[in-house]
Amino acid sequence: MPIRDAILAEYDHEMISTRQTLERVPEGKGDWAPHEKSMKMGRLAGHLAELSGWGATIINQDELDFRPVGAPPIQPFVMTSSQQLMDTFDKKVTEARAAIAGASDEHLMKTWTLLGGGKTVMAMPRITFLRGFFMNHIIHHRAQLGVYLRMNNVPVPSVYGPSADEGKM
After folding, report:
1. In Å, how far are 54, 69, 99, 117, 137 from 133, measured between CA atoms?
2. Prediction pTM value
């Protein structure tokens, strides 16, 4: 089995739960955060939506500099409406899925580099970035967003089993 097939099966599964979580982010709560050091809900939801497309960047580019020298840093995506959030998420998921589906094992084993200000932050095989930096990053922030939802009395969707709000499996 090509590596991409294993990644795609997992990606598809995780994107279902991620979409269900993002669909529940309430409008008008974009500036809410549980703590002063925490991301605001609109930024966290936006980050999760944009993260879902980073697979395309990892596949289609050899590197990414999030603070390129002599240019403005990458601007974070912030949710302004549910429609804008879901449109962005759906677009990014489609882009990432297509990129992963077209990747050969050989390409997935090539080095990909994350840079900050022209300096290497991390460099490792693309497959390692896809699993660790991409998929696990999505799962981490989806869990954070689930806590935000709970703290705002919004039902949390079932992810890996029933939630307190949904007894389904």
Report:
1. 9, 23, 16, 19, 6
2. 0.93
Count of other CB atoms within 10 angstroms of residue 127: 20
Per-residue pLDDT tens digits for 63-90: 999 999 999 988 999 999 999 999 999 9
Which ranges constitute the DSSP H helices of the chain?
A: 3-23, 41-51, 54-60, 82-101, 105-109, 126-128, 136-151
The enclosing domain of 107 has a CATH number of 1.20.120.450
Residue 90 lies in a domain: yes
Number of Cβ within 10 Å of residue 79's Cβ equals 26
Q: pLDDT tens for residues 116-163?
A: 999 999 999 999 999 998 999 999 999 999 999 999 999 999 999 898
- Contact assessment for residue 37 and residue 6, using Cβ atoms and an 8 Å cutoff: no
Domain that holds residue 23: 3-29+36-151
**Cβ pair 66, 114 in contact under 8 A:** yes
Structural domain contains residue 14: yes
User: Whole-angstrom Cα distance, residue 157 to residue 19?
Assistant: 10
Q: How many separate domains does the chain show?
A: 1
Q: Which amino acid is at 164?
A: A
Asked if the structure places residue 12 within a domain, the reply is: yes
Predicted pLDDT at 73:
85
